[in-house]
Amino acid sequence: MSSQPDVAVTPGDKDAFQQPNLAVDPTDPKRLAIAYQEGNRHEYCALARSQDGGRTWRSERVAGKGGRFALPETFPQCYDPFVAYGPDGTLLYQYEARPGTNPLGERRVIVTAAAQGGEFEQPREADPIGVDHTDLYSDMAVDPTSGRLYVSFLRFCEPSVPTPDALVKCLPSPGQLVVASSGDSGRTFSATRVTPPTIPDPSRQAIAVDAGGAVYAAFTDHFFDSGPATLRVAVSRDEAKSFGEPVSVTGVGPCSGDLCYASESANRNFFHALGGKPGELFIAYWDKQGDKNRIFFTASQDGGASFSPPRVVGVPPGGASHEQHRPRLAITPQGKLYLTYYDFRPEGEGGFHDTYLVESTDRGASFSTPRKISDVSSNAKVGSVGHASGRRLANFGQRLALASSPSGAPLIAWTDSRRGDELGGKQDIFFEGPMTAGSGGGRPGGAVGARGCLKLRRGVAGKRLGPARLGRSRKAHRRLFKGARLKVSRGMDRYCIAGGGSLRIGYPTRRLNRRLVRSQRRRIRGRAVLALTSSRRYAIRRVRVGSRTRLLRSRVRGERRVRVGANIWYVVRGPRSRLVFKTRAGKVREIGLADKRLTAGKRGFKRLLQSYGRGA
Fold it and tell me: How much is the pTM?
């Protein structure tokens, strides 16, 4: 795969721009967004948008000086912005406000959202607990199916008046990992403490969601000392209402040396966690191997119960003297795993940073030879904190940005100093991606839009859900949807839908076939037995995705209820198929059709769903 020309994202101002975070709109893959911060004085957080797959970018200030929203009067600095898209195209933007004195003092995590094509709403704090506190080192993740937003952060409390209320919200002391979740794009949040009292000092953290909706809270401990620490993972299967006991993954050392910036020194490095298919979690972190910083990779295939032995990845050929740091992960619709990072090349009194990429086609069991992405090396002494401060190296921020186009090409953004010098310290965000990002990876078929998403113009009737049909073979569906973005899991094909949401088509699995008699197996062999959509455009009996469960109950009669994991399914008799409604937390999440003869009773329907594992 050849490298494309680098594209400057940020304007020609003299500022240092850092901390890029990249997202792709699932309803229009040519629409990209990059959040970043101004790193000299931290006066504002910004957003760059592209409507053409990354060829051109337009920047705007979101919060702070000159921004759409003012920062709180006593919180004049803006840090650590994140951006994400919901499955319906809602743009979510998160940032931290800080007083500008003590780096741990009184920080707040704030979220705003913009509906597709709309303006950002009034920002709201994710953790308004009403006592003196600081929330920092935040992260965010969005469930790609339900659109539920998860915001994680470390909460430290210093109640000026130790009331019983403050003690409940702040203990255990000195800190705790908290996950706040929102089902309404950040308008309201409910917060859950993740770390048990036996782990009172979480240090770094990351949040991830897999395709089955499981939420993974990864963190290191020993914030207040520089001794050995442990990377741990706690899992929630009920939309972050509760978390299980954290599982130990591996030991990690303290951050030391010139590659560690002020917020990392004396404790732990930032790392990244990414959910894959149901039960799958990937983690990349950087730590010392001997006297060199290296990228380590580990993965879980059993829902966070166990992890593969961490191993070093990403050392370029001939780069044994180099150091690698600040990894970022992404997974493509086709299942390929990408990992990008900075490679530091020591030269003279300073050194140079380059952006590299490795990829895996076997879920991280092996990775390709590292490929350099950046066309020009960045002087590691040019930045917001550099030579003038007495430090040998400048601050390049705590992360890069990585995502995937629908066709599976990597989209990468990083902090770059090619347009700056040591005196001015200017840094920019640069981007590389395919110049045809969002093309869909093939010629669209009759049911496929130009962006690779299905055009479901017909409703739900008989055995048909749009152009999908129960009883049609997998081969026939794939031929019909040629050119569409396709994600495959156990017995299930998933396609995106133009306008938001997805279409899932289920076929017989080995687990299902083992529990059927020969005549049943012969009848359904290779043919669709389940069709579901999370698109809000389509309704069954005037019930659509997002409807309240109480509305569903008022509009269907004679339904059967089947619980599978955290979901409650409603099954209703239809003229030629079963009408099915997937609900969770009081709302409809998917609607669709199921094979009538396989789902004659509760037992049969539950057997069908369980054959797809957590993907159901």
Answer: 0.72
